Amino acid sequence: MYKEYKKLIPFEDYTIPAIITLPDDPADKSVVMLHGTGTDKNEAGNGYITAAHILADDYGLASIRIDWPGYGESDADPLRYDFSTAVRNAATAATYLKVNCGICHVGVMGWSQGGSDALLTAGNYPALFEAVVTWAGALDLSEMLTKEDIDTAMNTGYFTMKFGWRPDVDVSAQWVTDALHVNILNTFRMSDAPVLAIAGTDDDVVDPACAETIAKMSPDSRSRHVLIDGADHVFHVLEDERSPQLLEAIRLTGEFFKAQL
Question: How many CA within 13 A on the CB side of residue 130?
Fold first, then answer.
């Protein structure tokens, strides 16, 4: 079993909404969970809730999942969200676990754009994060942008990203600049942490081939990639919150972090 509680973690001039999940037995290994575009700390179909509980129960892993500025329960300005802020938010969450929860070893995972953030975080804080997992991790976020988005952001300081299934979100010119110019893999290569890159064979949002590229670019020989047969970008969690594809991704994640942290 596990204990779970909410926490507002101080960060610069705002707070980061977080949910911390701790196994009943003392844990010295934990995972920082980073969400993707347009979602929140619980992720699509509550996939991160399911993951956090299974990681605690079956693998003895603590976890912390956080909202980016302007997403979920965050009351911060969404224009504060860019690559650098995401990295520093993740590092702040990891440090909170180490200082306040007796955690010695921390990994980071991310879904879609959260996977991009996870790779950047590990590269920027190589001494803090000891292992990485990506779910449908994206390597080129500029593909999300149209020329109109770019021109609007450069001229006005932001553009509005429209989803249709959730309220629109304003995206900063700095995020656009990051997406256009930051080389995610080059940054990740500053980390010696092993990475497990998981993707679905039927992902039509992020090319499943990115998973192999991520693993091959890692300098650590323990790195690998896995393609889950029949899985789409969200592992069919919108059809079934405990879909077989999601549960397989969680199993692979739990086994990897338990072995590498």
Answer: 14
Asked if residue 48 lies in contact with residue 33, where contact means CB atoms within 8 angstroms, the answer is: yes
Query: CA 188 to CA 139: how far, in whole Å?
Result: 11
Q: Is residue 168 part of a domain?
A: no
What residue has token string 């003392």? 26
Mean pLDDT to the nearest integer, 220-233: 97
Please state the φ and ψ torsions of residue 133, each to the nearest 5 degrees.
-130, 135
∠191-88-128 over CA atoms, to 5°? 40
Domain contains 158: no
Structural domain containing residue 192 = 2-147+183-260
User: In the chain, how many domains are there?
Assistant: 1
Q: Which pTM value belongs to this model?
A: 0.97
Residue 166 confidence (pLDDT) above 90: no
pLDDT digits (tens, 9 = 90+) for 27-66: 899 999 999 998 999 999 999 999 999 999 999 999 999 9
Strand segments (E) across 29-157: 29-34, 62-66, 105-111, 132-135
pLDDT at residue 164 in the model: 77
Q: Looking at the domain assignment, is residue 43 inside a domain?
A: yes
In a domain, 173, yes or no: no
Contact 171, 152 (CB under 8 A): no
The pLDDT assigned to 136 comes to: 98
Q: Helix 83-100 crosses helix 173-181 at what angle (to 10 degrees)?
A: 90
